[in-house]
Request: fold
Amino acid sequence: MAVLKDKFGRQITYLRLAITDRCNLRCTYCMPAHGIDIVDRKELLTYKEMYRITRVLSVLGVNKVRLTGGEPFVRKDFIHFLESLSFNDHLEEINITTNGALIAKHIAKLEELGINAINLSIDTLKAVKFKQITRRDLFKETMQTLDKLLASSLKIKLNVVVIPDVNTDELIDFVELTKNKNLSVRFIEEMPFNGVGLRKTDEVWNMDKIYAKIEKGYKNIIPLKNKKSSTSRNFKIDGYQGSFGIIPAFTRTICNDCNRIRITATGMFKNCLFDDGVFNLRDFIRKGASDEELKKLFISTVQQKPENGFVAEANRKNKDISESMSTIGG
Ligand code: SAM
Reply:
């Protein structure tokens, strides 16, 4: 069977697929207050197109899919799409990244469909600050989702973007959540994908700085063995039920074992978060491409995967990194 391997011998087994570019929040680190220029609906991949792309990729060895956005649950009929995807028996894991505000009522269904894990994005444990960060008043709904997730069989990871001078005082509070709860908190380095570009006056909290801050609070941090393609460096506090990790998203020290590709909501194929897109699948499919042609395209496009995120950034046609993560699919 043909598999997707890049020229560095890395096998691609993981697809991150953006369901939409729309979002119900307006997080300050992701987009400006007025939002982003969302595309016309007909420019978005249809569910049928997403299903087909995923099926062809899964025949080539992709066994894990993460559905993201935008906010995946704002797109109509997302649950039906999940249902059809769950019939693809090449897929070992279907995971979802969500802000959680709309999903409390769907949790039983997600369990029934065999969804593996939910990454819930929440950057503060304080209601007032939540509203400042997200520019929306949905803290109660998000916390309700967290409680329901904790009572479910789904694996839970909390995504916390570390925002200088905003939530760096809460890192220990987040680690404390892992004391009696079976979840993994992952601190993410902030990236300039915010719809306007890097805010140069801000200091970036990198992995070392995040770790140093947490280390001040504990004497008993145990490093955990990282899975080969893990994006986070993982730890746990001795005796705590859950764990925590740090994702060096901006300093990019994790690229060596990368096993992933991305497809944006408009069908742009990305070999790396930091490239500016290598191929538009939507147009290729809409011109009548066959499954065989799609397979060939995937095999050859993955060959161009850059060694790491710095090479990807240097190769960009548009040198300015300023897209919103909501457009890219976070
Ligand atoms: N709406 C969903 C959510 O909030 O989880 C999925 C899409 S969101 C773009 C995916 C992830 O990207 C979230 O965890 C979010 O916090 C993260 N993210 C967005 N902008 C970011 C940035 N500039 N730097 C680092 N992470 C970012």
Observations:
- The longest strand covers residues 155-162.
- Residues 47-59 form the longest helix (13 residues).
- The chain is about 25% helix and 15% strand.
